[in-house]
Design brief:
The complex is a heterodimer. Chain A is mostly helical. In chain A, about 75% of the residues lie in helices and about 0% in strands. Chain A has a domain at about 85-260: Orthogonal Bundle (MetI-like fold), CATH 1.10.3720. In chain A, helix 4 runs parallel beside helix 7, helix 5 (about 125-140) packs across helix 7 and helix 6 crosses helix 7. Chain A is flat and about 80 Å long. Chain A starts with a helix and ends in a 7-residue tail after the last helix. Chain B is an alpha/beta fold. Chain B has one domain (about 1-315): 3-Layer(aba) Sandwich (Rossmann fold), CATH 3.40.50. In chain B, about 35% of the residues lie in helices and about 15% in strands. Chain B is built from 13 helices and 13 strands. In chain B, the strands form three sheets. Chain B has an eight-stranded mixed sheet with strand order 7-8-9-3-10-11-13-12, with helices on both faces. Chain B has a three-stranded antiparallel sheet with strand order 2-1-4, with no helix packed on it. Chain B is globular, with a radius of gyration of 21 Å. Classes of the chains: A mainly alpha, B alpha/beta. The interface of A and B includes residues 206, 215 and 229 of A.
Chain lengths: ~300, ~325
């Protein structure tokens, strides 16, 4: 197991280098003057251009630029934008908010999705099953920003005044529950369906029949024998979804005016702040890679048949 | 016993009746789809209901009718009173738990044993079914066992609660011939040691001859013949059994074409009128098509559901 982990960690290095280089190249290879429109109506001062080009290593070949950037990154320096704002500081304030929201979304989608999946998978057909099927179909077909706006308006003070839907600049966990729910709603529907079909598939297996024939109580037959096998694909989905949630936060953050990395990356792209975009996307790649590593490890724990020697 | 499906009602079992005493082995013999496994699963109470419906009948164990018991009472009987082993041990064992876990689970949950005691007992049980290095293998997963070892582990698990009756549903079908013999020997030995009743479900006449005391032959959800193993092989009392025996390869008839039973067993949603075997029976006559044969008593506990049972048995 230890060697398997080590090998997986080593595999992360080329993947990380490859993806970040691609992002860097894509962002900086835009066939346009990076200084266009940076200094209002007038063209930029040559001295400023020279200083910034020096700072961002724009005069070096792309590969050299990339490695210099990477070198700074390793020392924790994310660089500064054209207006001299530190990217690192921006990320440090926004990152925890998005991460918090992503984890809340993950927890909500796991709990509600898996519960709904188990309940409907165990007794196929009937009212509950149809309810879940229809509501998940509804969630899947609705764009997240629609779900977001509708919930925000109807639950908030202008609607049924059920709760305060506004989110402060330094949000608490309570404030992030509704945005987290919206963010996770799509995946929640997938989790519910995945769990349901997995349970349906496994409940007729021979080992479940054996557990029943052994006279094990129903709770153990389902909770231990059936669930352990059925949750393997669900866990995989949830793990890789964490990365997806981070990227998807851009819409939810927009709807709820949350000061997270979604907004940061959106402004970065709009204002052509390449250094901001690369910084954040690099971080997202890292989260994604670590999450999928975690899934692989968890997978080996859950299913002994795929353990690496 | 019926299965109510979209394609109609399948009368899976019809007037099936047998009994097993302690220390005795009853073989239930039949082709695929004859209802032998369903009978066993009905006894265990592990059929899904619906689609399965028990329209009438009784299953008596220790003098009590299992069918009138509550679900919890029946669950108590499973494993403790009646245990079952299945055909394919690889799929019957849970792939994500160790063999030890699956045995210990029974001891811990059903007997309230401590973890350490359960582990000790699990090793003992694996040892009893002759798994080499039981202590080392107890924490292995089913996929790390060979086919024969898996079936042994399955047997060990079924013995965990010292059942009085063991139902073995084609325990050797998935194994190769040499391992088959070892598993059958093991089952016979364990049964003798524990004076346990055993219902052996099989389609293999060879297996039956070695181990069974009595045989029930099933066809289309009914028992067509019931006899002592020796009597049955000496003189079958039903044309179906007769055909089965004739389809066995024989050393003295080497080189000749093997006899087979023509046609296929009937669909259980559409059993032919009269005797269900009549379309394939070499001795068919007009009564067979119109009248369901009654149970003919042939003496010494032998029965046959054939209009001309006496004639058939006399021929042998």
């Amino acid at each position: 197991m230890g060697r398997y982990v080590l090998r997986r960690l080593l595999q992360l290095i080329p993947v990380f280098l490859g993806t970040t280089f691609l992002i860097y190249a894509l962002v900086w290879a835009i066939p346009q003057d990076p200084f266009a429109g940076k200094c209002g109506q007038r063209p930029c001062d040559p001295a400023y251009i020279a200083e910034m080009s020096q700072k961002l290593n724009l005069n070096d070949p792309l590969l050299v630029q990339y490695f210099k950037y990477l070198g700074n990154l390793v020392t924790g320096d994310f660089g500064t934008t054209f207006n001299g704002v530190s990217v690192g500081e921006q990320i440090a304030t926004s990152w925890p908010i998005t991460l918090k929201m992503g984890i809340i979304a993950l927890i909500i989608e796991a709990i509600i999705g898996i519960t709904a999946g188990i309940l409907t998978g165990l007794r196929k057909q009937g009212f509950l099953d149809n309810l879940v099927l229809v509501s998940t179909l509804f969630l899947i077909s609705l764009p997240v920003f629609v779900t977001g706006f509708v919930l925000r308006l109807y639950l908030g003070p202008q609607g049924f005044d059920f709760m305060d839907t506004s989110v402060s600049s330094d949000p608490t966990i309570g404030e992030l529950i509704l945005p987290g729910f919206v963010l996770g709603s799509l995946s929640m529907a997938y989790v519910a369906r995945l769990t349901r079909s997995s349970i349906v598939e496994n409940r007729r297996t021979d080992y479940v029949r054996t557990a029943i024939a052994k006279g094990q109580p129903q709770t153990r037959v389902v909770g231990i024998h059936l669930l352990r096998n059925s949750l393997i694909p669900v866990i995989t989905f949830l793990g890789t979804d964490l990365g997806g949630l981070m990227g998807g936060a851009i819409v939810t953050e927009g709807v709820f005016n949350i000061n997270g990395i979604g907004g940061l990356i959106f402004r970065g792209i709009q204002e052509k702040e390449g250094i901001m975009v690369t910084g954040i996307v690099t971080l997202l790649v890292l989260v994604y890679l670590l999450a999928s590593l975690l899934v692989d490890l968890l997978y080996a724990v859950l299913d002994p048949r795929i353990r690496y020697e | 016993m019926e299965f109510r499906t979209r394609d109609g009602v399948a009368k899976v079992l019809n007037g099936v009746s047998y009994h097993v005493s302690a220390g005795e082995t009853l073989a239930v013999l039949g082709e695929s789809g004859s209802g032998k496994s369903v009978t066993a699963q009905t006894i265990m109470g592990i059929l899904d209901m619906p689609p399965a419906f028990i329209t009438k009948g009784s299953i008596k164990f220790r003098g009590e009718d299992l069918l009138t018991q509550t679900a919890d009472e029946r669950r108590e009987v499973r494993g403790e009173g009646i245990a079952m082993i299945f055909q394919d041990a690889l799929s019957a064992l849970n792939p994500v738990f160790t063999v030890g876990f699956q045995i210990e689970e029974q001891l811990k949950v059903r007997r309230g044993m401590s973890k350490a005691d359960a582990r000790k007992r699990a090793v003992e049980l694996l040892d009893q079914v002759k798994i080499p290095n039981a202590k080392g293998r107890v924490s292995d997963y089913p996929h790390q066992f060979s086919g024969g070892m898996r079936q042994r582990a399955m047997i060990a698990m079924s013995l965990a609660l010292d059942p009085e009756l063991l139902i073995a549903d084609e325990p050797t079908t998935a194994l190769d011939v040499t391992v088959q013999a070892q598993i059958m020997d093991l089952l016979a030995e364990i049964q003798k040691e524990r004076d346990m009743g055993m219902i052996l479900i099989t389609h293999d006449l060879g297996v039956v001859a070695d181990v069974a005391d009595r045989i029930s032959v099933m066809y289309a959800g009914r028992i067509v013949e019931h006899a002592d193993v020796y009597e049955l092989f000496r003189a079958p009392g039903h044309p179906y059994t007769e055909s089965l025996l004739e389809s066995l390869p024989r050393l003295d008839l080497k080189g000749q074409e093997l006899k087979t039973i023509k046609g296929l067993p009937p669909s259980l949603t559409n059993i032919p009128p009269g005797c269900p075997f009549n379309p394939r029976c070499p001795r068919v006559f007009d009564r067979c098509v119109s009248e369901v044969p009654a149970v003919h008593n042939l003496g010494m506990g032998r029965t046959s559901r054939c209009h001309i049972a006496e004639e058939v048995v006399a021929r042998g």
